[in-house]
Amino acid sequence: MPSRRRFLTTLGMTSIASLAGCIDFGEATYSPGTDADTEWPMPAYDRGFSAYNPDAAAPRDGVTERWSTAIPALPRRPVIAAGTVLVPTASGLVALDVGTGEERWRHGKADSRARTPVVHDGTAYVGLVDPPGLFALDVETGDQQWHIKNIGYDEAAPTFGVDYDHLYVGGVGEVSQIDPTTGKVTARTEVFGSVTALAHNTSLLVGTEGGEVYSFSVGDRGFSDQWRLKVVGSVRAIVTSDSDIYVATWGGPAYRLQGGLDAGSSRWEAERGAVGGLAAASRDVVGCDLSGLRTFDAHSGDVGWNREGEFTAAPAIAGDTVYIGGETEGEGGSGFVAAYALSGGRGIGSLRVGGKRWQFDVGSDRPVGQGIAVADGAVFACTEGLKGDTGPRVYALDPA
């Protein structure tokens, strides 16, 4: 029979071991990206709009400004490909050199109101409100390859099929399948309401302003219905990671939807949603709004960690780090870009320390808005305006 001292010692060691198992001491699940030559060719990086590139190198310990460039009003999330930063604005699509920030070309006019483009194989596909339609443009020169009138100028960014041989574009009450080389519409299907989100993993996922989520099997034969689900609130974003589907809504919760035999049903709902934007890594889903930045456990929906603040730019994840933008209230407040450890730092559950890696203040009385992009070893962000008459700017931030 063991002595009381040995029993208490064993009990203490067991308790410590159990507690240690509950404490996250680092980045065991995620590791820093090492590739400094990556691109960000779609608004949220890939066809599934995950906003997650595990291989991308990006600033982790601090930043320095590579360049900042003035742009027209109302910028949207930038896209980076072929050495070019594409910024959609109220005055058309602006192309900047990724290394210097110098303007290369513009497409559109004063009231064009460009939508966020997608890029593949040296071609950018962008919708404009005026003239209304979808344009295919050479990324390096801005030369127009084709234009489809009265299609693709709504809020949802396009996405591609699995082999990039089809481009899918949303509209009011319909989704179109387009041959990206010719601009020919090859198929259409109807949906209920205006399309607000598109994503593609093993199927085409469509979200609408009326809170409908659709799944279509797509290909050379067009569209084939798989399932349809009504959610609470207007769909603002659909994000996929592997076979998982996450939905952010305006006026409702965030959802994880099931695949397989139960495809289309809800696996979990998070009351505090992610209307400001979503990003999905292998184990964690990152969401933000004007009340905070938080992670959800991908399987259970439980909140992993939360940081209070007014976060106004959709997050991006590179390697083991979350990049986000926002605004600070009060006299002398400034818009900012910040980086957080995807693990949330060290601690138990939501009680963690050391999660914030750096913050860069842009000196603006308006927020860093729309969304963050990570490419070419740097972080890219747009401000919605600056004090004085200098207007909005695009920032490229390098490691310090």
Automatic annotation (TrEMBL):
Residues 64-190 form the Pyrrolo-quinoline quinone repeat domain. The lineage of its organism: Archaea, Methanobacteriati, Methanobacteriota, Stenosarchaea group, Halobacteria. InterPro entries: PQQ_b-propeller_rpt, PQQ_rpt_dom, Quinoprotein_ADH-like_sf, TAT_signal, WD40/YVTN_repeat-like_dom_sf. Signal peptide: none annotated. Pfam families: PQQ_2. This is Outer membrane protein assembly factor BamB. PROSITE patterns: PROKAR_LIPOPROTEIN, TAT. It comes from Natrinema hispanicum. It comes from the Archaea.
